[in-house]
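Figure S7 source data.
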Amino acid sequence: MAVNGRSTAPVPTLPSHADPDTDRVLDSGLLHELSYAFGGPFHFLLPHRFDANLAAFRTALSDAGVEGRVYYAKKANKAAVWMERCAAHKAGVDVASVGELREALGHGVRGENIVVTGPAKSDELLRLALLQGCLVAVDALDELDLLITLALTGAVRPARLLLRRLPPAQPHSRFGLNAAEVETALDRCVRAGDAVRMEGFSFHLSGYATQPRAELASELVDLCLKARVLGLQADRISIGGGFAVDYSPADHWHTFLADQRPEHYHASKTFQSGDFYPYHSPVAGADALRTVLDTVPEGGHESLAARLKETGTLLMMEPGRALLDGAGASVFRVQGVKDRDGYQILTVDGTSLSLSEQWFNSEYLPDPQLVTPTGRPTGDEPHPACVGGASCLESDMVTWRKIPFPARPRIGDLLVYPNTAGYQMDSNESPFHDLPLPPKVVLDRLGDRPRWRLDRRPAC
Ligand SMILES: Cc1ncc(COP(=O)(O)O)c(C=O)c1O
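Tokens for the predicted pyridoxal-5'-phosphate complex:
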């Protein structure tokens, strides 16, 4: 194949799923205006997609006849708009720090709809959670002791808590209580009497497989039954997050994995394919919840949904990434173009700190779209280019891969990375080089002229 006049093997491509909402934004002309106005990279957010994802999770619960609650895992994106949507829809929020808890409360989420996760919670976090009536997922025995002490010495209400289980199938996890610790914790809860309300158990599993989630959920139902015999409330379980997002069609993903080689990356950079996020998932989002609910746990004879109903157990979940599927994208402006041996090195106006995958020894693979001042170019001849950040670090590559663009990128063109709201935009952001953090723009209405506002008003 001819690439820029040279004969070479085709450069693999990984297009994301077609997304008419994002395309309308790309074709509206707004992004160039905003890039000019901000003078740097920015992210745009589509709150209606968050609403739709939340509704899909709730529909999966009601279709299965299961009582459940969805808590948005706030760590996946720092924007205020998600808290606003959770408050408006009376959805829950999963927070893991004082800052996150303040943000959720400050945007109108009620304390009773907040679950506090994360290890070794500080006194300050536990105290605030108690005062606001939040549910605390207790990670360790010393944390339980601290929570009970705080509840006994001055809190206005009992401490609402879940006991987080160390997953037996992931015994090296540093989170949760092992079987012996669960016994001890139950005993301490019983002895604490009215100071605590032990509402059930929780877990969060690494990976995205549905079967292990159903298995462990069923074990937690058993634990609830045991705790109820001890006189504890134990009427709910949380299965955490880890509902996959399907970024790219199956055929593209499998072809990409089969074809990609070091020569397809700048400086022949190598990545372990196992370190890539699984950008294609046959079962994702709310469908993954449906699958978990339909699964018959090993040794059982009924689905998890049936077990939950039969035992009067409420199902909680904490999706982060999956609620943000399709809910945002990241925009960088090309600031420099350099020719190398058969490809270009683009330098954009931001850094890889705003597309965080590099920091996990991996790379965000869905292809960015090229948007020129006159629109999205089309063309048959690929123009491969990698993308560097505007910093002095060799390792600051937004994309090491040589992306086959449909036209030669030029200074002033925009690169729009699709579907970046889940963890990519801001989990590792840093104002390195005194570069400002990219602002976030909320698009409340699409159409020929999308309506935009800043996610947060600038401080005066
Ligand atoms: C306790 C807990 N809940 C929920 C989540 C959210 O996971 P995801 O964004 O994969 O749904 C995490 C992620 O680390 C977590 O640790």
